[in-house]
Amino acid sequence: MLKTFAKSYQRLVPDSPIYSKYDGTCKVCGKDYYKGELISPFFDHNYNFWRHTACYQLFFLTLQYGSDCNGCKEELGPKTYGYWSKHNGIWCSPCGEKLFPNVSVAYSQFQKHNNFIRRNRKGRRYGK
Ligand SMILES: [Zn+2]
Ligand SMILES: [Zn+2]
User: Fold this and answer.
1) What confidence tens digit (pLDDT) does each residue in 27-64 have?
2) H helical segments located in 12-128
3) What residues pair up with 40 in beta bridges, in sequence order?
4) Which ligand lies nearest the alpha carbon of 95?
5) What is the spatial distance between Cα 128 and Cα 122, in angstroms, rounded to a whole number?
6) Which helix or strand (DSSP H or E) is residue 63 part of?
7) Residue 49 CA: which ligand is closest?
8) Which residues contact 75 (CB under 8 A, 6 or more apart)?
9) What are the tens digits of pLDDT across the range 98-115?
10) How far is the CA of 81 from the centre of ligand 2 (A)?
11) Which of the chain's termini has less CB crowding within 10 Å, N or C?
C-alpha cells in the first residue's frame, strides 16, 4: 500500500503544506496521519514520502538566502550553515540541534550513505 502511494506521488512537491487526501504514516514520527491533516513532503532520495507538517525533516546546508532563525530569531546571512525543513523555515545550528531527536536530519554524508545502500540493493526499487 505504501509502495503504491510512494510511486504515484514521487514527483509531487507542493509549495506549502497540503491537506492529505488519504490516511498514511509520517516518515518522521512513525505515527499515522489522517485524511484532512496538514502534511509536507519527506524526501528520501528520489522519492517523496509524507510527514506531519509539524514533524520536521531537517537538512543541514548552506543557506542560499538570508532568513531569520525560527528559534532565536537571529538573522542568518546567506552562505551560512543552517538547518532547513521544507515548509517550516530555517534554524541556526544551536537552535536546530535543540530540535533533536524528534526530527529527521539529513547531512551530505547521509546522501552518500543512501547511494551506497542503493548500489547494494540493485534491482530492488520502490514502486515495483
Ligand atoms: Zn509525524
Ligand atoms: Zn537560532
Assistant:
1) 999 999 999 999 999 998 888 899 999 999 999 999 98
2) 93-98, 108-119
3) 51
4) 2
5) 13
6) none
7) 1
8) 66, 67, 68, 69
9) 888 778 887 654 444 444
10) 11
11) C
Residue 81 grid cell = 550553515
Q: Please check the confidence at residue 94 and state whether its pLDDT lies above 60.
A: yes
Question: 53 C-alpha to center of ligand 2: Å?
Answer: 20
Around ion ligand 1, residues with a beta carbon closer than 5 Å are: 26, 28-29, 52, 55
Grid cell, residue 58, equals: 531537517
Q: Residue 70: nearest ligand to its CA?
A: 2
Q: Ligand 2 centroid vs 18 CA: distance in angstroms? A: 27
Name the percent of the chain lying above pLDDT 90.
Answer: 56
Residue whose C-alpha is closest to residue 104's, from 126, 86, 79, 117: 86
* Torsion, CA 105, CA 109, CA 113, CA 116, rounded to 10: 150
Report DSSP state, residue 37: S
Q: Nearest Cα to 66, choosing from 86, 56, 81, 85? A: 81
Q: Which ligand is nearest to the CA of 56?
A: 1
